[in-house]
């Protein structure tokens, strides 16, 4: 009977997240949703690239767009599944569902199961501000970014319990995330890269050199899991240079062609609330003398804002800031819980001293 109840709860829980993922993509994805038919943005170009690849054309050779192959591969896989754009629509739902699940896994560490489910299911709708018609690189990068921050927050919790060594499996996840971003838009990994740098500094300071080596190997292996299949495919097709040119070289030139500017950045402030929330959490940690955590979160927010200041002002670029928001809520709950524990300890200590004083008087 208990097993049956657990199964029903499991189905309901993940069914709710799958349903909200479907509603989100159905409503917001202009180029893939059956509800909308829009054909004038980058997303539609990705559909063309994916459709061409599914029919045997080679990206960067027979068709060209200045993006990494990951976005084309996802679109190709969608066309392979259904023969039309609705296969991509289904994959978008799965990626959004994955994001929800990962947020739920993070939140249930500090919130009740129901609250964690509600925050994960409804929280994705804050994504709407930067979604910009869907089927963009950043949308598919988000589950990888959230998975990395899930690992990062887990390590910070372990560090607080005097387990300084960083689990190499977490580094493996960071590597997969970096590999995916390298194969889509490498700047999407800015937050994860900043976290890795500070973790490295922390481990060096604590002389965990063997642990650093294990993590470096794990990170490289994770990145290779994503990069190697693409590199081998284009090498076999005789298109290695075309592949790296379209993925990296062309975009180095493209990225320098425009800047957002401070005024435009401030006008887009609501889409960057995750960065501001993370910086605020960093300041709160510093005020509580948790200096490493404070510098870590503040730095991630700051370098992300500096990146946004120096690239073109497209709403979907800000999508990579979305994962910062659940991290901020997670850390805020930890801070509040620590404060409650401190207050309870203070009250208990006061009561104890009062009883001791009373006993001495008697």
Report on this structure.
By secondary structure, the protein is mainly α. It has helices spanning 2-28, 42-54, 69-82, 86-107, 113-123, 128-131, 137-160, 168-182, 190-205, 209-236, 240-255, 262-267, 273-287, 291-309, 324-361.
Question: Summarize this, please?
Answer:
The protein is mainly alpha-helical and 362 residues long.
Specify the biggest β-sheet: none
Q: N-to-C SSE series? A: HHHHHHHHHHHHHHH
Stretches where pLDDT is under 50 for at least 5 consecutive residues are 342-354
Question: How much beta, percentage-wise?
Answer: under 5%
Shape: globular
Please give the share of residues in helix: over 70%
What's the helix count?
15
Mean pLDDT: 89
The number of distinct β-strands equals 0
Radius of gyration, in angstroms, nearest whole number: 23 Å
Report the span from N to C terminus.
58 Å
Q: Which structural class best describes the helix and strand composition?
A: mainly alpha
How are the SSEs placed, and which strands pair?
Elements lengths: L1 H27 L13 H13 L14 H14 L3 H22 L5 H11 L4 H4 L5 H24 L7 H15 L7 H16 L3 H28 L3 H16 L6 H6 L5 H15 L3 H19 L14 H38 L1
Helix pairs in contact: 1-4, 1-5, 2-3, 3-4, 4-5, 4-7, 7-8, 8-10, 9-14, 13-14, 13-15
List keywords for this structure.
mainly alpha; 74% helix; 362 residues
